Amino acid sequence: RPPPASSHTNVSFQFDVLDGKGRHPCATLPCSIRCRLDQLASEDCSGRAGVSYSNLRDARHTFEVSVNTSTGLRASAHYSWIVDTIAPTAAIVPSQTFTNGFNVAVRFVFSEPCIAPNGLQFSCASESSCPLVVRGPGALLPSSFKVIRDNVEYSLSVSLSNSTAKGRILLVMAKALCSDAAGNVFVRSSNSVAIVRFDRGAVFVNLWTPVADSLLLVNNVARTVETTNRVEDLKIYLDFTEPVLNTTQQLSALLRPNLGVLEPTRRKSRGNRRFAFLLTNISTTSAVITVELQSSLVISRAGSRVQPVAPASFLFG
Prior knowledge:
mainly beta, Immunoglobulin-like, 5-stranded mixed β-sheet, 1 helix, 46% strand, elongated
């Protein structure tokens, strides 16, 4: 008979009929022996010492054999087991995929209990014994290793290089590191690899308008001034050097014009780097318009605050 969990889809059973005294009643008396697998119709197994089945599907199965003697004695026995042909895998789940920090927490979760070759729990006494591998400017912190669920879920921290301001690491599960109860060996899937990028560099923004420069006389002195009388020029653009987490609506609330109201308008964002707004509800025909950005409340994808930026000013009218 198969083990309680098996990766084999073909199976064989041998059986013998014994009474309570260890004798073989079917050797001297006529017996009816029938076999059944799961909910299939039973079949006659009289005169046979075993039976085989093939191409079993992944599921729990039950084999049953029953005996009726010519004297009216009845007996039956059954055995259940699981067919499992699916290899275990694991998903790597970093707490952040973009960061400006020096450490990142990582969980790895197996699709089912997966037992190490020595039958013991995984450990990270050293980087070489850890089931998680780090490639690139980072390193495992073995002392941070924790068992969350036996043979299923674990966590640990990974340090990111402090000798470079920007980079990325690749996290990958080791090969063939464990097996499930049916003997299927671990295989890596697309979720068994993760990338963490870090960037501790400064993030800048360009706050600008499409208003052209004009030469004006101010107190009889020629000066270059941004000026327009065209409503279609009343646009404010934000160009960040790195993607930001803030939404267009949030950025709109952080822009402070001294006149009018800013409303988002369409623009290709280039991965949440570029934004555009339209200045409306200008209640005067001539004014100096200034727009400020509360840049300290804008957060980059890696978690850095955007550097201060000068207001955008121009003459309208």
